[in-house]
Design a protein that fits this description.
By secondary structure, the chain is mainly alpha-helical. It is built from 15 helices and no strands. The chain has one domain.
């Protein structure tokens, strides 16, 4: 299967469709409200969606699907591989990748600390009354001193009858399409900014660079590298994503939609592929880092620390040029 390499014309229609959907969602939210209300009412019926572990399991499922699809494309489309193009050799041998059965330990290492937090910390979301948050954490309704602030952690009240945080209290009302679009966009922008500084520290601080070295340990970047992380960095990535959602008070449905978008972006920049429909082709020229820029970062490790966009990296280079001048 061959894919076009010039994205200028092939992304015109997707850009138009995406622009119409986002534009109407922001400026005419009433068009989508009935659908969002029914979707939210549907989700609230399921105990699995109300479970405290839902977001962790949802992330693992989405990652497995997205990474597998990118890995298949990487293996079966050598003409898209950035390393093969650079060497002008489509027969360039594939890097050594792990088979699914050998990745169980990696999956458990990823899931274990997140499940631990899910089962011990109370979930707090905008639109949920403090009464429901308190009850979900197994506290008496008259308990005082529990903050409903999204950023203030609160441990579950452990008892023999309720040894773990099993459920999360959810808002009764669905968000508007305007809220969804704005919260998704803003959360990605916040994450892009905070991870830029975290990533810069991973390269510049010796104690952290040793942890980050495992992420750059490869002969050619490929989709599986996305999750080739030290446990400290993996937790940092997840916690920063949560911070980006919490700091703006995202609706739970926003969080649910954030996961596939976030995972897709992460795998895409680590794909080692130059695809006609990459997100960097969909966005206006110069906005997105994309797989090419991130591949350059993995090869040299000296610049392009920003994950999804270019603005912070460009600002850092501008500041460095100013100091040199």
């Amino acid at each position: 299967m061959s894919w076009p390499t010039d994205g200028s014309s092939s992304v015109a229609l997707p850009r138009l469709v995406l622009g119409l959907i986002l534009g109407s969602a922001v400026f005419a939210p009433s068009l989508y409200q009935s659908f969002l209300d029914s979707t939210w009412a549907f989700l609230l019926q399921f105990s699995v969606y109300r479970a405290s572990t839902f977001e962790t399991l949802w992330t693992v499922l989405i990652y497995a699907v997205v990474e597998a699809s990118y890995t298949y494309r990487f293996v079966h489309n050598p003409q898209l591989r950035l390393a093969a193009r650079k060497s002008q050799d489509d027969t360039k041998s594939l890097p050594k990748m792990q088979r699914p059965k050998h990745r169980v330990r990696e999956g458990l290492t990823y899931i274990a600390p997140l499940l631990l937090m899910d089962l011990t910390m109370i979930k707090k979301f905008r639109g949920v009354q403090i009464r429901d948050i308190v009850l979900s954490g197994n506290y008496d309704i008259n308990t005082e001193g529990i903050s409903e602030n999204f950023l203030a952690p609160t441990l579950h009240h452990f008892t023999w009858r309720s040894p773990l945080q099993i459920k999360r209290a959810l808002p009764l009302m669905a968000p508007t399409s305007r809220q969804l679009v704005c919260q998704l966009g803003l959360s990605i922008l916040v994450y892009d900014a905070v991870f830029f500084w975290f990533h810069l520290a991973l390269h510049k601080l010796p104690i952290l660079s040793k942890l980050h070295a495992i992420h750059h340990k490869h002969s050619e970047i490929y989709p599986q590298i996305t999750n080739q992380l030290d446990i400290v960095e993996r937790l940092g990535l997840v916690l920063l994503a949560n911070f980006s959602l919490n700091i703006i008070g995202s609706h739970v449905l926003t969080r649910t939609l954030f996961v596939p978008m976030f995972v897709w972006l992460l795998v895409d920049i680590h794909s080692g592929l130059d695809q006609a429909w990459g997100y960097d082709k969909l966005l206006p020229r110069g906005w997105a880092a994309g797989s090419k820029r991130h591949s350059h970062h993995h090869q040299y490790g000296t610049k392009f620390y920003e994950p999804f966009f270019n603005w912070w990296d460009d600002g850092l280079q501008w500041a460095a040029a100013g100091r040199a001048g």
